Amino acid sequence: MDTATLFATLASGGVIGLVLGLVGGGGSILAVPLLVYVVGIGSPHAAIGTAAVAVTVNALASLLGHARAGRVKWRCAGVFAVSGMIGAALGAELGKTFDGKRLLVLFGLLMIGVGLSMLRKRRATEAPDVRLTRSSAAKLLPRLVPIGLAVGLAAGFFGIGGGFLIVPGLILATAMPLPFAIGTSLVVVSALGLTTATSYALSGLVDWSVTAVLIMGGVGGTLAGISLGKALSARKGLLERGFAAVVISVGGYVIASAL
């Protein structure tokens, strides 16, 4: 790996970790475009596999910080994660059968759709004390299981951690406040990323040298993201709108480049 590629990979890892630490998701949706267009990995499938490994490790690092702050609903995360892992395993196998350019076009369209959805205002009443118990299971499980399965399918297909889908999915299923959804999502991101990463690694579609450098940059970015998130907590709406604009822009660039 030459010096320019090394710094590009470190910087890309820093961006992925920063976003994961800041908003709990979205770092993974930027990982594949960064690896293809900044780092220069030629195969979209290898970029997806490499991104999945790096995102999983960075998500675990970010999860530690949120868990210490008490912002993780573990039982809800567990059900969502198991459902999502089943979907991710199916999605990863399906994604490997698609042509690389078509996969990038679909990926770009997904980015634009997610970015636009992030700009919509959430109107649901929040339930900060929501817990998965015997009494609440009849209400929560019919929501957590199918939403988790659908999110996992998309995460595996596109090789993403899925945090940008998991956060709104958790809110839709449980009405938990955004800070709890962000912390809880990282459990699921880690589980889905591990499933996807394992599938691609077994197929030889992971560049391990790039992965190691990505992780080094990502750990630093994650710590910075968590700290910055605390400082900008009063401007969370502005932060989300800014990130949504970045996601939409990158999605458009991915589509234009693939075509």
Automatic annotation (TrEMBL):
A Pfam family of this chain: TauE
Subcellular location: Cell membrane; Membrane
Species name: Sphingomonas pokkalii
Entry-linked InterPro entries: TM_pro_TauE-like, TSUP/Inactive_protease-like
Family to which the UniProt record says this protein belongs: Belongs to the 4-toluene sulfonate uptake permease (TSUP) (TC 2.A.102) family.
Keyword annotations: Cell membrane, Membrane, Transmembrane, Transmembrane helix
A cellular component term, taken from the record's GO annotations: plasma membrane
Keyword Metal-binding: no
Membrane topology: Multi-pass membrane protein
Keyword Transmembrane helix: yes
Official protein name in the record: Probable membrane transporter protein
Residues passing through the membrane, by range: 6-39, 46-66, 72-91, 103-120, 140-173, 180-202, 208-226, 238-256
